[in-house]
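User: I've been trying to design a sequence by hand for this structure and keep getting stuck. Would you show me what you'd pick, starting by listing the structure so we're on the same page?

Assistant: Good idea, let's start from the same input. This is the structure you sent:
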């Protein structure tokens, strides 16, 4: 199976919060812009999340993520579903508290239209999450 980036211009993205509602500097668009200078920065609070609604079904197989050290998640829960269905848990990932790109978290391959990544336990005292890069890879169906 060829592995390719699944997020495209037609993927609808939502996030739980943005630091001080400053979407220009810390908004969801920075998750995928490929710049080392920009990031999505959540506001404080537990259980921050990102949802991705793909324009057509996909089979997710890998997740690449780059946090800011000190603002990472100890536990990432992946949930997914097909259109019109309820989210179901796919897997749990345990990232490192590091600024390094964490590549190839293998995900149980699942066909879905919607993916939700919940950052359940932040290393930051206030519960903030900072992500410089989010890559979702797999196969478009």
């Amino acid at each position: 199976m060829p592995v390719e980036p699944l997020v495209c211009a037609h993927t609808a993205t939502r996030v739980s919060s943005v630091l001080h509602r400053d979407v220009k500097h810390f908004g969801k668009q920075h998750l995928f812009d490929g710049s080392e200078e920009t990031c999505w920065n959540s506001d404080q609070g537990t259980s921050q999340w990102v949802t991705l609604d793909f324009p057509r079904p996909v089979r997710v197989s890998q997740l690449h993520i780059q946090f800011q050290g000190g603002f990472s998640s100890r536990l990432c829960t992946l949930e997914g579903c097909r259109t019109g269905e309820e989210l179901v848990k796919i897997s749990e990932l345990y990232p490192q508290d590091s600024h390094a790109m964490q590549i190839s978290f293998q995900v149980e391959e699942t066909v879905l239209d919607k993916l939700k990544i919940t950052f359940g336990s932040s290393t930051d005292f206030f519960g903030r999450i900072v992500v410089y890069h989010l890559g979702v890879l797999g196969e478009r169906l």
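That's my pick for every position. To get oriented when you compare it with your attempt: The mean pLDDT is 93. The first strand starts at residue 4 and ends at 5.
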